[in-house]
Each structure stands twice: as C-alpha cells, then as structure tokens.
Write a structure and sequence with these properties.
The protein is an alpha+beta fold. It is built from four helices and nine strands, in the order H-E-E-E-H-E-H-E-E-H-E-E-E.
C-alpha cells in the first residue's frame, strides 16, 4: 500500500495531444512541441504518440509512475480509435485480433471492434483526406504493448490503411470520461490512486 504523501506530492496530468505536435518539450526544427501547450516544471510524458497521432498523453514528475505507465512489463491497456480506409471484414478483424508478424516483431493478441465513429470526437485540423469512391471505417483497438507505429502497421497488414489515429484511454483514464479538446489538459493528481494504472 502506497503512503498518502506519495499521492499528494506527485503530479499527474492528462493532455489531449493535437495532430502534428511532437511529444517532447525540447524544441523541434519544424513542428510545435508539448512546451507550447503547458508549462509545468519537471513533468515528462509517460510514453509517446507520433506527431501524426492524436489523443491522450499522461505526464508526470514521478519516475515510478512514469515507468508503471510506459514500461511494457506492466502491460497497461491502451485504447485507440482508428479511422481506416476501406470496409472492415470479418477476415480483417480476425487478422487484427491475432498475433501479426510485422517483420521486426510479432504482435500480441489484442481486442479489436468495428465501431461507428464516436460522437464525442473532435474534428481534426487539417481534416483527413478521404477518397470519394473509397469508404472509411472506424475500429477500436486495445493493446497491452506499444511498439513504434504498431497500430498503423497492424491495420496496413490487414488491408486497412490508417487515416486517423486517436489514443482514447490509458488504464483507467480516458478522454471520454475526461473530455478535453486538442491542446487542453487537466491535473488529476488528487484523483489518482496507484491501482488506476
């Protein structure tokens, strides 16, 4: 059982990272960074999102918590809402749910559902380029790992190229229960308990 002072002293921030923002505080030559969204000293992202991905980032000043969130040994569930090009088939869902050999690693089995576009999702700036004659679909994918560009590579291997990728939840925290527009953040330090992640 963690002592109470641990929860009071640590910081935990939920941020909705916008599209095209680098998941770092140091300056970047051509893109905006997290430093332009919040200025809380000594916090760092626990895990990352690519510049072309959007959604939930957790930031903390506590090394133990950062490790618990981001290290693959802890197998934190991470949920992604994915807009893909094409129509989702039973075969594609089967491929995505089972281990996929991506060349440099084999994915773990995961949870994948074909969903309607959630009503609470914001419009992306710039908008996704859609082709008039090709339908798009939405998937909800929950992983317990997170290799580089894994979700994009998985959907491509199933014949469904990713158009838009939004991380909606990490462990017990989600953008559905903490509605934040891109660039907005909230301090949940006082709400956090060790079992949440």
């Amino acid at each position: 059982m963690q002592n109470r002072s641990y929860h009071i002293e640590m910081k935990l921030i939920l941020l909705n990272k916008p599209y095209n923002v680098m998941c770092q505080f140091s300056a970047h030559a051509s893109r905006p960074t997290l430093a332009e969204l919040l200025s809380i000293p000594n916090i760092y992202p626990a895990g990352r999102l690519d510049a072309d991905s959007e959604g939930l980032i957790l930031l903390t000043d506590d090394g133990r918590l950062q490790n618990r969130i981001s290290h693959p040994d802890h197998k934190q569930a991470k949920t992604y809402l994915v807009q893909v090009e094409g129509s989702v088939t039973a075969e594609a869902l089967h491929t995505l749910r089972n281990p996929i050999d991506l060349g440099d690693f084999v994915t773990q089995a995961c949870e994948v559902k074909h969903i309607q576009e959630p009503g609470w999702i914001w419009k992306r700036t710039p908008p996704v380029r859609e082709r008039a004659l090709i339908p798009t679909s939405w998937l909800c994918i929950t992983l317990h790992e997170g290799k580089n560009r894994q979700v994009r590579r998985m959907t491509a291997s199933a014949g469904l190229p990713t158009l838009r990728l939004i991380r909606s939840a990490i462990g017990g925290f989600s953008l559905e229960s903490h509605p934040l527009l891109p660039g907005e953040w909230i301090d949940v330090s006082s709400q956090y308990r060790w079992g949440d992640l």
